[in-house]
Amino acid sequence: MEQTMREGCAGTGPGAITPDGCAVELYARLPVGDEPEVIAAAVPAGARILELGCGVGRMTHALLERGFEVTAVDESAEMLERVRGARTICGPIERLDLGETFDVVLLASFLVHAGDVEVRRGMLRTCVRHLAQGGSVLIQREGADYHSNVPRERVDPAGFTVRIVSVEPVGDGVDSVHAEYVFPDAAWTQTFRSRPLTREQFEEALAQEGLRVDRYLTDDRIWVRAVPMP
Known about the structure:
The chain has helices at about 25-30, 35-40, 60-65, 75-80, 115-130, 200-210; strands at about 10, 50, 70-75, 85-90, 100-105, 130-140, 150-155, 160-170, 175-180, 185-195, 210-215, 225-230. The chain is α/β, with parallel strands linked by helices. Helix 5 links the parallel strand 5 and strand 6 (about 130-140). The termini are far apart.
């Protein structure tokens, strides 16, 4: 089924492209980083996790291996076809309402930086709506120089290159980001819109939806544990 691209998003390369410009075949190749360790250290063992924007399940599978129960959500059916061992739900994050709650809600992949403020607010409200009493929301933010250290590239030990080629303002505090992923046998590009947020702006965005920072989980403040306001 053909899906409508989100505004300002595009992608090229082999295989299916999702509404936000992600290539399914690309993400199936990307290795998982240290995110599962960060998450596991911040939440109770065996917690029920609602993973918003799971993609092909890179983190999903790692969390399942660590004994967590994961419900994986993505708006791309092609992405969800790659997920194994978890309950999967297809649909936009900002409109999700499952009528149940979880110990942990996970909003990774810089989704909190959605260019559309109403989409961001919808995503955060989804987090709050699905949070059990005493639970927490784990959020992944962009690094401090994500929009200014451009162009830049990283050669992964697995043998591929990631480039942030350009970051161009498009108005209202939003940037258009263009990325390239180059493997020996294939290449993909992705263009998407991102709203940079200072620490203060990020915390204000959380507060607008009834959340506060409990603690920053990494020294670079990219990973955050948030909880409901009293």
